[in-house]
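Reviewers asked in the last cycle whether our approach scales beyond single polypeptides. To address this, we selected a multi-component target totalling 720 residues and predicted its structure end to end. The input consisted of the following lines:
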Amino acid sequence: MTVMDQRATREGRPVPPPAWQPRTDPAPLLPDAEPHRVLGTDAAARVDPELLRRLYTEVVRGRRYNAQATALTKQGRLAVYPSTTGQEAAEVAAALVLEERDWLFPSYRDTLAAVARGLDPVQALTLLRGDWHTGYDPREHRIAPLCTPLATQLPHAVGLAHAAQLKGDDVVALAMVGDGGTSEGDFHEALNFAAVWQAPVVFLVQNNGFAISVPLAKQTAAPSLAHKAVGYGMPGRLVDGNDAAALHEVLSDAVSRAREGGGPTLIEAVTYRMDAHTNADDATRYRTEAEVEMWRAHDPVLLLERELTGRGLIDEDGIRAVRDGAEEQAAELRARMNQDPALDPMDLFGDVYAEQTPQLREQAALLRAELDAEAEGEQA
Amino acid sequence: MTTVARPPRSKPATKPATMAQALGRALRDSMAADPSVHVMGEDVGTLGGVFRITDGLAKEFGEDRCTDTPLAEAGILGAAVGMAMYGLRPVVEMQFDAFAYPAFEQLISHVARMRNRTRGAMPLPITVRVPYGGGIGGVEHHSDSSEAYYMATPGLTVVTPATVADAYGLLRQSIASDDPVVFLEPKRLYWTRDSWNPEAPEDVLPIGTAVVRRPGTSATLLTYGPSVPVCLEAAEAARGEGWDLEVVDLRSLVPFDDATVTESVRRTGRAVVVHESGGFGGPGGEIAARVTERCFHHLEAPVLRVAGFDIPYPPPMLERHHLPGVDRVLDAVARLQWDQ
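The resulting structure, written as C-alpha cells, was:
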C-alpha cells in the first residue's frame, strides 16, 4: 500500500485508482545541481593519462581547425562556418566515446565532431563550401549528414538505434543538438520515442548560451536543459561542457548504459560559444566582452593543459609538438581547400529518384544543351 | 484408414473485395515477402488502424514489425527515417490527411531529399500511407486533399489508387520502391467492392503510368483517386447527350505520365481535369498546363478544371456542395463546346 493509499484509508476516502500513482521514482533521473567536473578536482586522478593526452591533442587540433575554417570563410572558400571555438571539448568527447559501429548524428555546427571521428575534413566541409549537401557516404562513416533544420536529426537517431536494437546489433546512436534546438517539437518527440522504446540513444545538448542571439533565459524556463529528461522518463545529466574529461566520463557512462539495454540519456553540456553564430552574425549586439572574458578563463584547452602540466604528464616540448601537429593539419586543409572543387552540373539530376523520371530526363537534356552551347561559346 | 478423394485443384474463385481489404493484404504480403518491412503508426497494432487496414498484422508478425507508436507524426516519420537509414523498409500510417501536417518538415527536409543530398548513398525506402479526401462525413481536419503539397516536393513519388486491384498492386510497388512514396488512399473508396482474387492478384501497371479506364472519342476526363468513379459515372450519363468521354485514371501524380495523357487529349481534342482538391494552386493547374503545352494545336477548347472550391474543407453536412459531382463534371463537358 502506498503512502497515498494509507492516507486515503485513514481518512475514510476511497483508495485512488492505480493510475494516480507516479509510475517511476523521478529522483534517480534528476541531474545533479552542479555540472559534473573532473579537471582541476580530485576526480582527475582517476583519469587514464593516455586518455588525457589524447583529449588534449584532439582539443588543440579542434581549436586550430575552427580557426582555419573561420579563416576560409573570410577568403571566400567557405560560404559559412558555424564555429565551435570554446566548445571543442564536447565535440571531441562525443566523437571519442563512440565505437566504429556506432552512429553520430551531428547538427550543422558539429563539423568538428565528424572530423574528430575520423572523417576527412574536406568531405566534412563540403556542405559549408557549397559544392554538395553531404560530402561523404553516411553509411561508410556512420555519420548522418550534418543537419541544418533544428533537432530534426534527433528522431532519426532514435529510429536508427531502434532498428539496430530490433536487429540485435549493439549499436549506439549519439545525437547532438544545441540549446535552441531543445525548444523544437522534434526534440520533444525524439526524447519521448527514445524513452518509450528504450532505444540505445544518447542525446548531447551543447548549451552554448545562445540560439543565434537569443539567450538561454529566453529559450526555456526549465531549471536546466538536463531536467527536461525527467519528464520523458530518462536520466538527465549536467556536465561542464568545457571539461573534456568530465564529458568523456559522462558520455561513456551513457553510451555503456545504452549499449547494455539501459535506454536513452539526456546530457546537457554547459559551455559557451566564443565566436559569433556564423561569420554573418554580429555577437557584439547581444553580449558583452566581460562575459566572453569570463569564459575565456574557463577555456577547454587551458583546463586540459593545466591538468597535464600540473601532473607532469606533458612538458613545454610536448605542448609544442601537439601545437605543431595541429598547425600541420591546418596547413594541409588550407592547401586542399584552396583548390577549386570539380563540379559536374549534370549531377543535379542524378540522385533525385532511383530512376530518372521522364520529366527530369527532359530537364537534364535542356541543361546539357545549355552547357554545350556555353562550351561552344567559350571556344569561339 | 479411409481415403478421401481430393477435389480437383482449381484456381481460387474471384470474389468481391474492398479496397481496404486489398490494402491490408498488400501490407501483409509485403511483410511476409521481406522481413525488413515494418508497419508503424498510431493505432496500427492492437486496434488494426482506425480504418482496420493493418488489422491482424501485429498478431501475425509481432509488435516489433507492426508497432503502435506514440502519438506524434513528426516523431513517427523521423524515426522511420532512422530505421530506413539502418536498412529497414518502414511503412508509416498517417491516420488522416490533416494529421500528416506535423510531419511535413521531416517529409520535405529529410525524406524527400536524403537520396539527393547524399548523392545516392542513402536512399530512403519509406512508404507514407495517407488516407485522404472527403465524402465520408468526417469532421474538421479529416477530409483534406493534400496531394498538391506532396506533388510540389521533388524526391517524393506520389500515387493514389482508384480500384481494388490498383490498391493492392500500387501499394506492393510502393513498399518495394527504393524511393520514398506518399501513398494517398482515397478514404471514400475504402469500402467499394470489386471482384478481386487475393490469392492471385492481377498484375497492375507500374508507378508512373496512367490508365485509360474508359475509352472515348469526344473528350478526355483526366482524374485520379476518389474522382475516378465520379468521372466514370459522368461518362455514362454523357452518352445520352451524345458525348463519348474517355476517362484517364492518372494513378501516379509523380512521376506524371505525360505520354498517355498527351496521346488521349490529342485524339479527343478536349480535356477536363477533375479532382476534389481546391483548384487554385491545385494539381489541376499543373496538369492543364502540361496538356496545353503538349496539345495546343490539337485542342478544340481550353483545358477546364473541375475541382473542389478554394475553401478550407467544409463541415460534413455541407461537403456534398463542395465535392465535384457528376453534374459539375457534365457542366464542364458542356462548356467544351467552345466554338458553338
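The mean pLDDT of chain B is 95. We regard this as preliminary and will revisit it once experimental data from Aim 1 are available.
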